[in-house]
Amino acid sequence: MIPALISVARVYAPYIMLPVAMVIGAIGYNIEWTIRDPNKPKGGQKPSVELERDERLLRQLLEAEKIEDLTKVESLKQKSFVSKTIFEQNLSPSLKPSSFSSSSSSTTSSSS
């Protein structure tokens, strides 16, 4: 008799366990929703690292440049962001023409 019950339980185990698992899951889900804080809409999740970084960079940009309106940008028709030659693409700030002329004038005045 016992081997027959074991074989029946083995065959019908998925049909018995699925409803049991669904009931246990539903009970746990409802308990979790009654316990959690209703003031936290996403269960108290922190904002993503990427979102925090973007907000921090935006705050730093606004503090550094004191820009009032971020929609006022220069025209794209001027193409000031495109370098004129390939040699200007990865140019160090110390080698830019504006800084080079000021540094060369300071070295000539200090040497004389």
Characterization of the model:
The chain has 112 residues and is an all-alpha fold. It has a domain at 1-63. The chain has three helices and no strands. The chain has helices at residues 2-35, 49-65, 97-111. The N and C termini lie far apart (113 Å). Residues 99-104 have low confidence and may be disordered. Belongs to the SMIM12 family.
Number of strands: 0
The Rg value, from CA coordinates, equals 34 Å
Multimerization status: single chain
Give a short account of the largest sheet: none
Helix content: 55-70%
Low-pLDDT residue intervals, each spanning 5 or more residues: 99-104
Mean pLDDT: 76
* Sequence of secondary-structure elements: HHH
Sum up the overall morphology in one term. Answer: elongated
* Category from helices, strands and their pairing: mainly alpha
Number of helices: 3
What is the first-to-last residue Cα distance? 113 Å
Strand % is under 5%
List the helices and strands and how they pair.
Elements: H1 2-35, H2 49-65, H3 97-111
Characteristic terms for this protein:
single chain, 112 residues, mainly alpha, 3 helices, elongated, UPF0767, membrane
Summarize the structure.
It is built from three helices and no strands. It has 112 residues and is mainly alpha-helical.
